[in-house]
């Protein structure tokens, strides 16, 4: 990874997806853990896919829409992670780093959307 790669959101969201996949693979084989885990897997891995689409968007409106999709999926992933902790499927200690990264991604997408919207009216 090059020095600037840590600032590339395409790489960051790809690595985030990998962490979500590893989390799902480590979940207990109970019905509840698997159902909640699959929901988290779907939303968590779609963040990076949606960001790739936003990155290559053809217009500001398309960028804003795709960043909105990223935000929606990141917030949904927050929900599933919080539910896993609340239901003691996974310990808070084990998920704290992933929760922190999710919170940071939400903040980045909110900021990106707000910037794009304000630039659209300038």
What are the SSEs and their pairings?
Elements: H1 9-26, H2 31-55, H3 60-86, H4 92-121
Helix pairs in contact: 1-2, 1-4, 2-3, 3-4
Task: Characterise the protein shown here.
The protein is mainly alpha-helical. The protein has a single domain, classed as 23S rRNA-intervening sequence (de novo design (two linked rop proteins)). The protein contains four helices and no strands. Helix 1 packs antiparallel against helix 2 and helix 1 runs antiparallel to helix 4. The radius of gyration is 15 Å and the shape is elongated. The model has no long low-confidence stretch (mean pLDDT 93).
Question: What are its keywords?
Answer:
4 helices; 122 residues; mainly alpha; de novo design (two linked rop proteins); 82% helix; elongated
């Amino acid at each position: 990874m090059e020095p600037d790669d840590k600032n590339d959101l395409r790489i960051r969201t790809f690595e985030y997806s990998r962490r979500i996949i590893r989390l799902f693979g480590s979940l207990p084989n109970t019905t509840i853990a698997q159902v909640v885990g699959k929901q988290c897997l779907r939303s968590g891995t779609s963040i990076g896919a949606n960001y790739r689409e936003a990155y290559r968007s053809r217009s500001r409106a398309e960028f804003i829409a795709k960043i909105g999709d990223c935000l929606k999926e990141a917030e949904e992933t927050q929900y599933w992670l919080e539910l896993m902790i609340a239901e003691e499927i996974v310990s808070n200690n084990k998920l704290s780093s992933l929760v922190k990264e999710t919170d940071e991604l939400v903040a980045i997408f909110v900021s990106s959307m707000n910037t794009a919207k304000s630039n659209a009216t300038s």
